[in-house]
Design brief:
This protein has helices at about 5-10, 35-40, 55-65, 85-105, 110-115, 120-125, 145-170, 185-190, and strands at about 75-80, 125-130, 175-180, 200, 205. With about 230 residues, it is an alpha+beta fold.
Length: about 230
């Protein structure tokens, strides 16, 4: 029962429901279920604003909900908050990369151009190195089944990384996954002091985007579907 309502009614309309709609930059809950996956975009340029550790924790919590073989938990995440640790890792990786390219016969100019692909990791204020720990993998007497077993764990690692990237995007953070740590795993393991059995599976640069990501190129879904 409402008393005195007539005294409150005026002829002028108020702003309506539109006044309740937050601007996208201020809305922590703007993603509906249909928007979450599309929110993830590769970001290569970041501001200097630090990354909230709580957002990283939320992203890792999402990552470890990924499916995995044999009810295992094969994911590990090394969060590099220290600028010194990041610089040491990236310098060591760069030296290993340049040595590989030199051994392949690339010229100095070609090497300089090629290693620029790793620069987004240097621009990111935080790095996350996902690692595969496949201790639960079954062992078989033949290469065919062992290869299939490893592929199962690699797929599970990819699912976890995707969850990580999507969760970061929902929190308003940009990210880029770069595969470089996979090409020099011993170097990375030494620089980060990784436990035995932890395999680096790329590196994720994380930060606040310096600019909005460009629109995703259109893709025709039917081009990727085969029906039998």
């Amino acid at each position: 029962m409402v008393r005195g309502l007539a005294d409150l009614v005026t002829e002028a309309d108020g702003p309506g429901a539109q006044a309740l709609v937050r601007a996208a930059a201020e809305d922590m809950f703007r993603f509906g279920s249909a928007d979450v996956l599309a929110a993830r975009r590769t970001v290569r340029d970041f501001t200097a604003e630090p990354v909230d550790p709580a957002a990283v924790t939320r992203a890792v919590a999402a990552a470890i909900t990924a499916p995995a073989p044999h009810h295992s938990t094969p994911w590990r995440f090394v969060v590099l908050e220290s600028a010194q640790v990041r610089a040491t890792l990236l310098d060591d990786m760069l030296a290993a990369w340049m040595a590989d390219l030199s051994g392949d016969g690339f010229t100095k100019d070609q090497i300089v151009r090629r290693v620029r692909r790793g620069e987004p990791l240097r621009r990111a204020p935080l790095l996350i190195v996902p690692c595969l720990h496949a201790e639960a993998a079954h062992r078989y007497p033949d290469d065919r089944r062992n290869a299939a077993e490893r592929e199962m764990f690699l797929v599970a690692m990819g699912a976890a990384v995707q969850n990580l990237l999507v969760a970061l995007a929902v929190d308003g953070l940009g990210s880029c996954w770069v595969s470089s740590t996979m090409f020099c795993r011993p170097v990375v393991a030494k620089a980060l002091g990784l436990p035995d059995g932890w395999e680096p599976m790329g590196a994720v640069g994380v930060g606040h985007p310096a600019a909005p990501a460009p629109d995703r190129p259109p893709r025709e879904v039917s081009d990727f579907i085969v029906i039998r």
